[in-house]
Design goal:
By secondary structure, the protein is mostly helical. 59% of the residues lie in helices and 3% in strands. It has 18 helices and five strands. Strands 1-3-2 form a three-stranded antiparallel β-sheet, with no helix packed on it. Strands 4-5 form a two-stranded parallel sheet. Helix 1 crosses helix 6, helix 3 packs across helix 4 and helix 16 packs across helix 17.
Length: 409
């Protein structure tokens, strides 16, 4: 009986790492670029990485058989980069140490597509998940850094005002001189960008402590309300850009099912509002509301989350001042998913006090079960846009919060 010979088993090629679905070569390069600094890769070496990877076939990043490879010699890469071959060797060594490339060359260091020798990127592709997590950490640190810089700026503005009043009232006493000397030693705004996150955290904490110390000294020197803690809200309402409106309270949600407020809609208040017959009584109500609104009343309009940060500030300072609300508002930014740039835009256009009130209003509405804010950042930017058109009515929104708070209680 004839027994057929067994057929040779085909050799299986090793499966090469590939990019996840939805990511292409350019997206992969952008991902590596975002985490390069954390991997110890400088800008020049990253440019060499981009040059090498640009010579690969994009399809190889999605194929499990071929591994993306750069067959260019160091001299060719150097020519494309406009640097020496020696610099390219240094960059490649750094990229190898960082685990971004793997060099497989011939004995003489030559690279060739025919012999399968060159610079391979499979090792970096296999680390995509790691890089994605690292990018999230980098972005979180970057936002935290921006938020801390903003808080330091708030401390600086507040402390400058306190020092001016202290010197004006009492002259340059020993205690005021001490505070001033410490204040003069603060790094510049540009220097803050060069600080590590840990260094900036320590500096911001020291800046806040000095500001609180100066505020307490000023508070102890006279009994009447502090000049820099006057009714900022009233100042804001009296701004010539503010347009009072007779129907500032949004009553659509009172006693009705939840409604949706799209993030791009502007907050309460309009540019033009026809005077109603009860205009005088309405104005009187607004005036009384503003006159009676102090730290405790403003605290009562805040969300529970905002109150938590205010309680922390109260514990630090022994009381709540307007600066406490500014800091608490900035602490709420990451919790609401608001990018620091939205806060910076609001501060730049409206001023810090008004920006804080806008953040307080946004935060309170997010916490209101009868209002759906699809994007807190979008709502805050909407208030900024409303200011640009002259339709922002902060007072009306505060009255609206107050009315809804009264109905709940």
């Amino acid at each position: 009986m004839h027994v057929p010979q067994s057929l040779p088993i085909p050799r299986c090629e090793a499966v090469k790492p590939t990019l996840p679905r939805g990511m292409e070569r350019d997206g992969f390069v952008a991902l590596v670029d975002a985490v390069a600094r954390s991997l110890g890769i400088g800008a020049a070496a990253m440019m060499t990485f981009r040059t090498m990877i640009a010579s690969t076939r994009p399809s190889a990043f999605k194929c499990r058989i071929d591994e993306p490879c750069c067959y260019l010699s160091q001299n060719e890469i150097a020519h494309k980069r406009g640097v020496t071959a020696c610099r390219i060797r240094q960059h490649e060594a750094a990229l190898v140490r960082a685990g971004l490339i793997e060099k497989r060359t011939m004995a003489n260091g030559a690279r060739s597509g025919f012999s399968g020798c060159g610079v391979f990127f499979g090792a970096a592709i296999a680390r995509v998940d790691e890089f994605l997590s690292l990018r999230d950490e980098v972005e979180a640190d970057r936002r935290a850094h921006a938020r801390l810089r903003g808080q330091r700026s708030s401390h600086k503005r507040h402390l400058k005002g306190i020092l001016c009043e202290l010197v004006g009232r009492h002259g340059l006493t020993a205690e005021v001189e001490r505070i001033h000397q410490n204040f003069a030693g603060w790094p510049s705004g540009q220097a803050l960008h060069r600080m590590s996150l840990e260094e900036l955290q320590n500096h911001e904490a020291e800046a806040e402590a000095l500001t609180i110390s100066a505020s307490q000294l000023l508070h102890e020197t006279h009994d009447r309300p502090l000049e820099n803690e006057r009714s900022h809200i009233q100042d804001i309402i009296q701004d010539s850009n503010e347009v009072a409106c007779n129907d500032p309270v949004d009553t659509r949600s009172v006693g009705k099912p939840t409604h949706s407020t799209v993030s791009v809609l502007q907050p309460d208040g309009r540019v033009h509002c026809s005077e109603k017959q009860d205009g005088a009584s309405s104005d009187a109500h607004k005036s009384k509301f503003i006159q009676n609104l102090g730290s405790d009343r403003l605290y009562g309009l805040c969300s529970e989350e905002m109150k938590m940060w205010l309680d922390i500030e109260r514990q630090k300072r022994g009381r709540l001042d307007f600066h406490s609300f500014v800091i608490a508002a900035q602490k709420r930014l990451p919790e609401l998913g608001v990018h620091p740039s939205a806060w910076e835009e609001a501060v730049g256009l409206l001023g810090e006090d008004a920006a804080m009130l806008c953040m307080l209003i946004t935060d309170a509405k997010v916490a209101d079960p009868n209002v759906t804010i699809l994007s807190p950042a979008g709502y805050l930017r909407g208030m900024v846009r409303a200011h640009r058109t002259g339709s922002l009515n902060i007072m009306g929104s505060l009255i609206g919060l107050n009315e809804r708070s009264r109905r709940r209680h």
